[in-house]
């Protein structure tokens, strides 16, 4: 497709092609992860402030993560899991088993 303003051509994305790539903060997967994080923090007897201190961040960030106002990138996810004494790979496995069917092919 041609873009007259820039004078260049571009590929038009298929409608819905990236639909599932970024889920809503209200999606079951997001809620599951937030609940897991909250339960683990509470099981460790940590307040949001105490967890923030472990991570070296301001405590309001923990509240935003737990309410879904703030998402974690992959590096932050790993650090967050470690601060909660969780293995990131096991958390991902739980999410995968709960919400995604992955067809594993042998090499």
Number of DSSP helices? 5
Q: What's the arrangement of strands in the largest beta sheet?
A: 1-2
End-to-end CA span: 39 Å
SSE topology string? EEHHHHH
Please tell me what the overall shape is.
extended
Number of strands: 2
Structural class: mainly alpha
Helix content: 40-55%
Low-confidence stretches: none
- What is the rounded Rg? 19 Å
Q: What share of the residues does DSSP label as strand, in percent?
A: under 5%
Which oligomeric form is depicted?
single chain
User: Average pLDDT, to the nearest integer?
Assistant: 85
Largest sheet: 2 strands, antiparallel
Topology:
Layout: E1 2-3, E2 8-9, H1 28-43, H2 48-55, H3 59-67, H4 74-83, H5 88-99
Antiparallel strand pairs: 1-2
Helix pairs in contact: 1-5, 2-3
Short summary of the structure?
With 107 residues, this protein is mainly alpha-helical. It has helices at residues 28-43, 48-55, 59-67, 74-83, 88-99; strands at residues 2-3, 8-9. The protein has a two-stranded antiparallel ribbon with strand order 1-2.
């Amino acid at each position: 497709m041609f873009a007259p303003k820039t004078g260049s051509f571009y590929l038009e994305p298929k409608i819905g092609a990236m639909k599932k790539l970024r889920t809503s903060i209200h999606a079951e997967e997001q809620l599951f992860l937030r609940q897991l994080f909250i339960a683990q923090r509470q099981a460790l007897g940590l307040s949001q402030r105490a967890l923030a201190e472990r991570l070296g961040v301001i405590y309001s960030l923990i509240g935003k993560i737990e309410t879904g106002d703030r998402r974690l990138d992959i590096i932050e996810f790993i650090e967050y899991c470690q601060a909660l004494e969780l293995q990131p790979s096991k958390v991902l496995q739980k999410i995968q088993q709960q919400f995604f069917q992955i067809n594993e092919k042998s090499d």
